[in-house]
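Budget justification note: compute hours in this period were largely spent on complex prediction jobs such as the one shown. Inputs:
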Amino acid sequence: MDGDPPSPEPQPEPPPVRRGLLREFTCPSCGGTVTIRAAGNSITAVCSSCDAIIDVTDENFRILSKAKMQRRTEPLIPLGSRGILFGKTWEVIGYMERSDGSWEYLWQEYLLFNPYHGFRWLINDHGHWNFTTMIKDDISVVLPVYEGRTYDKYLAGGARVCYVLGEFYWRVKDGDEVSVKDFIHPPYLLSYEKSEDEEIWSHSVYMEPSEILRAFPSVEELPAREGVAPNQMSLLGKAYPGVMRVFLLTLAALVAIEIVIRFTSRNEVAWSGTVHYDSHEPNKTVLTPKFELKRYMADVVIEMSAPVDNSWLESEIALVNADNDNTVHVTSGVEYYHGVDGGESWSEGSNQRKIFLSSVPAGNYYLAVDTAADARIPAADYTVRVIRDVVPLSNFMLAVLAVSAFPLITWWRRRAFEVKRWSNSDFSPYANTSSDHDD
Amino acid sequence: MSLKNIYLFICLITCIGLASANFRGWVIWNSIFPASYVHTEPGSHHK
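Corresponding output:
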């Protein structure tokens, strides 16, 4: 991290920062010591002994509230802790627990102070952390745009103060309620809070728990994250645009390679001829004249075409290297059936067949062909062709498949993450989808 | 190494693989799914 996250200077609500000094006074309620860390900036402070909320701007330290608040959780980052976030040192001076009003869903907010840079918030929502800055910009609640980014509406609800500790730059009190609207553009979040007196926009950036632990070394561990936060970035979500760019470039490269190879391949007929089959000579092997397969190494296609009609014909073809007798045996059959069934015509099979032989070395070759056929074929002449250096489309298709797998998986995982992200929103674009996947 | 770079590496290998397979007349499908109707014998005689 370097520099502040993209956020303007604070803040509509916090007062102009005065270089405060540490200050202590006696709680007028219980006599305990209350420490002020942002003297001159804080308006209220909470006595850690009796929970009385005190007006520190009043020279007699007037008590604003003496109600005993119910603390739900201990602050994970103790008041007075200092940590470096976005290259600046921040001191935790306030702690607030808020709920959505149901008292069931709680989150914790830490008020940070730096005498030169003012106030920020560190918000922990079920293990997900956000670094938050108040902003002054005039933003539309209908379609918020901030720093060139358009935000999607995620939540509309309320927030209520359940517990406060430390000091604050406004007159905080237990039970304060505001209406809230959250808008997201991961890893950023815009919050709009409206109370009877004011409207406040704040801008948050998602932080990994490891960043919080690095910033505050006194904190040993943080609770595990629950679910997916509104503005959490998935690992695959970050990589997805780059992966898609690479995919499209690779697809173009594969097409280019295929075109070049097809233009330069020989596609040469090395031998073509007719083979005679006679059922009276069932074990006769037909030997073809020798022919040459050129080029050091290339594939060979053996193509067979026979006049079958509701019948079959099968050949045992041996491609024999006349120089060293290395042989490739191929069993190639053709069958073609057709007819009419229930007024519908049908057909099956074909009277042609192609077989690719991989990486056949150059040399002089001949074919040795044994034929068998349907009893309805007493004799037949059929064509055999040997074609050298044919580019198989299957190679290209397999290459496309190979490079497509990763983007497809990335897309699917990213979508599952997004479905989970939006599962807590009333404005989900995946309203009819559910997923148990996490990222 | 980022996911994107790992994928970039896979893509480069695939491009080189396609070019070289076609240049050498290697039908990749035949290697993945060897056909029962094709087999090779060194030095057999059909004469």
